[in-house]
Amino acid sequence: MAETSKIVILGGGVVGCSIAYYLSREGVKSTIIEREGIGSQASGYSVGGLNPLEGSHIPGQLAPLAIESYRMHADLWEWLKEETRICFQGRVTEMVTLAFSEAEIPGLFKSLEYFENASSDGFSGCWMDAKELLNLEPRLSSKLIGGALLRGNRALDSFEFTRALADAAGKRGVAFRHGLVETFKTDGNRVYRVILGDGEIDCEQVVLAAGPWSGQLVRCLNLDLPVEPLKGELLRMKLPGLRLPCDFIGDGFSIYAKPDGLVWCGTTEEWQGFDRKPSDSARASILKGAMRILPDIAKAELIKHTACLRPMTTDAMPVIGRAPGWDNVFLATGAGRKGILLSTGMGKSITDLLTARTTEISIEHCSPERYG
């Protein structure tokens, strides 16, 4: 006999758990199906940075959803920590975007403008010359000519945040089911059963939030969703001496200062299919880039080398909304490097669509209908 669930969510990453969490706040129970474990993919390995002011299509079409999601994080954190007692290290951060050449300076002043214009949300920035940079962190490269100190971004431990969402949802009756989705049973333009390798679940609505694997699942519904895995690798390192005062970004690489004293260096972006194995070439590339920013990285101890697959669409915009041609199937994927940031907005908007068929969250540029 098939199991039953009002809403089935495919994927136990940060987006799937966010959807389950926001549904639970509306009193709606759901079932998350995850084949490996909560936060076991990109959601568990992300740097966890929340920058709503810059990125692909920011400024641009994604900017309204990005800042709305950022504000939702700010509103959520204290309550979520209080309910779950899970410390996901939510904090406001500072970062310095660095210039090695005069050609890079105009872009940094543009970043300063973005941050200064968002002062109402707590953002600010200032220019630092080479001497000021070395006063801030003497181990920085002597080849730097300046940088933009940017304040107001937030950061968290992405795995613990995902776990907190799942824990809070579970306290309200959300079920978690280990399993591998094989296909669906349909009646007209509705899915009424999800077929797993070891069972079946009858449902009223289905949400596909399976990251880069979403593209494979929708083929069972005769849909073509151009979301592919973008491989990213990071090095977690123990730097000798004092802790870094903030994050540093330059020349295409980043060094993130973590609360536990480690630094995370990265990141790479490669189209390698579903290969999740850390590579020697990526490690060498990251080390070379990080040492250009902070030469003492050469003395750091490598603690862990990770790789994950981010869901990326062909137009670098997330996919949020009802699946074309289906009455009760919804898509929530494709956030790329902004998945942790956008998880709140994606979770709330999908919840609204499932329960009220409309949402005030700015997802108008994220509709699956744009793919035909």
UniProtKB/TrEMBL annotation:
Residues 6-353 form the FAD dependent oxidoreductase domain. The keyword Nucleotide-binding does not apply. Gene3D superfamilies: D-Amino Acid Oxidase, subunit A, domain 2, FAD/NAD(P)-binding domain. The chain crosses the membrane at residues 7-24. Keywords: Membrane, Oxidoreductase, Transmembrane, Transmembrane helix. GO terms for cellular component: cytoplasm. The keyword Membrane applies. One of its GO terms (molecular function) is glycine oxidase activity. This is Glycine oxidase. The lineage of its organism: Bacteria, Pseudomonadati, Verrucomicrobiota, Opitutia, Puniceicoccales.
